[in-house]
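>> received
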Amino acid sequence: MALYSAAAAVLAGLERGEGGLKRLVYNSGFPHVRQLYALVSETLRYASVLEKLLDGAALLQAEKKLAPQLAKVLVYDLLFGKGLKCGGRWKALARRHRARLEAELARMKVRYKVSRNEDLLAPEKAVSAAASQVPRYIRVNTLKTCVDDVIDFFKRQGYAYLGKAASVEELKALSGKKFLLDLHLPELLVFPSQTDLHDSLLYTSGHIILQDKASCLPAFLLGPVAGTHVIDACAAPGNKTSHLAAILKNKGQIFAFDVDPKRVATMNTLLARAGVTGCQLAQQDFLTVDPRDPKYSRVTHILLDPSCSGSGMVTRGPGEEAAPSAERLQALAGFQRRVLNHALSFPALQRLVYSTCSLHQEENEDVVQAVLLEWGSAFRLVNAFPSWPCRGLAAFSGAESCLRASPAETLTHGFFVAVLERCQEEAATPSCLPAAAKENPQLRERTEPGAAPKKRKKKKQRVKE
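>> returned
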């Protein structure tokens, strides 16, 4: 039964937008990850068919205590998989409804004029062509290694390094054992979408982080310099926190918050593996943190990636895009406005990044617009990453300063990023660079869109070839 419970938990996490399929599987704690991944992936592949079966057989109405995610997993293995492997009451429950489920499956086949179970999938391929092209992104953890050494490692493993990408089309064309340096982010390597590196020594030792490109944008655009005090307000599972630590070179202070104890435990493990120091991790709701606490008097940068619908997440396996109700979106947007307002109230704050993995304007441009109106002239939107191809929706004047990401246009998960800065009386032209780039000329060369790094050492030249 542990397998089915773990699979149901992963499905629930996907629906809540807590991460991609592989991340949730590998963070589940279940000992047989390949078995779990296969079961969840196949259940997702048949998700729409299973929902019709559950409705037609009225299983959830008959069994009030059966969670929908667990029902899908059980019915998948009962009718499409290798047969139920569990014992106990859930096996008895599934078998009790077997005749009704098989009859409903037979009716579906007649309705769609097909004879095989697989043929039921044909009219509803769960993953779009664009989503299936999202590559596997690898962020090099500069707290433990450097880009050159990681490239050399993969070369020794039989991979062919093709140099720095010049366009999104080059990323799209990746196949086999080939990889590139990303065209936008300097510590990001790009592999074909089906590349699985969870068993790689570099991953298990924390030298590389499996992190989607869009998820790397918030910390990159916040860009705090070494010595800065930073808050990661909704931090778990910790990839963005470890990215901030790498940007800070473990010099400075990170205050990271998350209210969920399991996610905090997972995050603690991830940060330790990544070699992060100078981070105070707290199981606490960020809304309960007092901005006037002297502990936070030097916090000048905040990364805010609050709970959202997760509608932009693209699972590595098949799945369906989340479609939250209007009421759910309204509730999420209300929470997001509250937490953004709270973040802006920290007295020493100079720069904030607000991001979501949502496609919905209600959670993105509308939240930013409402909060900026409340704060008047105290904060302004930064025109972040001008060469980024996908901009904010024209919901209000200046929304084009925000960034959006999507499988079709940027070959990433769906994402939204807005950069806010406190206005100064003698403000110059709005900045388009992270703060670290403005204060560090070398970082500026690296982070200005389209700028090539200087060749400082012979060893580093291999990355730019």
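>> The chain is about 40% helix and 15% strand.
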